[in-house]
Amino acid sequence: MATSAPGKHGHAKVHIVGYDIFTGKKYEEATPATHNVQVPEVTKTDYLVMGESYDHFMSLLSIDGRMKQDLRMPGDVKLAGKIRAGLDAGRDVTVTVLGAVEQEIVIFVKDAA
């Protein structure tokens, strides 16, 4: 984020650079310093992986005991491979899920190896 001084006929500007946490795409915005900017609420939650269904949805258990079955196996081959290897070996596998604007993605896998 960078700011510029007010010009002869305008307001001070703020130049904001951000990255989409789901796609990695870069976004840039220049807005007057006096305006409000919407910011998404981002959550980070750990789940224990209980299994994988035939259609590649994971069965997840939260710390407070809630089941979650609406998240697909990650598209990242390394993450998905680590989850499957841990499940096949009978180990506890924990995933960290990042969520924002009604989207969720697995960002980290911890295998209790």
* Largest sheet geometry: 5 strands, antiparallel
The 3D shape can be described as elongated
Rg (CA only): 20 Å
- What is the number of E strands? 8
Order of helices and strands: EEEEEEHEE
Strand content: over 45%
Mean pLDDT: 89
Spatially, the strands of the biggest sheet line up as 6-5-4-7-8
The termini sit apart by 41 Å
Given as residue ranges, the uncertain stretches (5+ residues, pLDDT < 50) are none
Structural class by sheet pairing and helices:
mainly beta
How many helical elements?
1
How much helicity do the residues have? 10-25%
What's this entry about, in short?
The chain has 113 residues and is mainly beta.
Plain-language structure description:
- The protein has 113 residues and is mostly beta strands.
- The chain has one helix at residues 77-88; strands at residues 2-3, 13-19, 26-32, 43-52, 57-62, 67-72, 93-100, 103-111.
- It has a 5-stranded antiparallel β-sheet with strand order 6-5-4-7-8, with helices on one face. The protein has a 3-stranded antiparallel β-sheet with strand order 1-2-3, with no helix packed on it.
- The longest helix is centred in the last third of the chain and has 12 residues, at 77-88.
- It is elongated.
- It starts with a strand and ends with a strand.
- 10% of the residues are buried.
- The mean pLDDT is 89.
Properties at a glance:
single chain; mainly beta; five-stranded antiparallel beta sheet; three-stranded antiparallel beta sheet; 1 helix
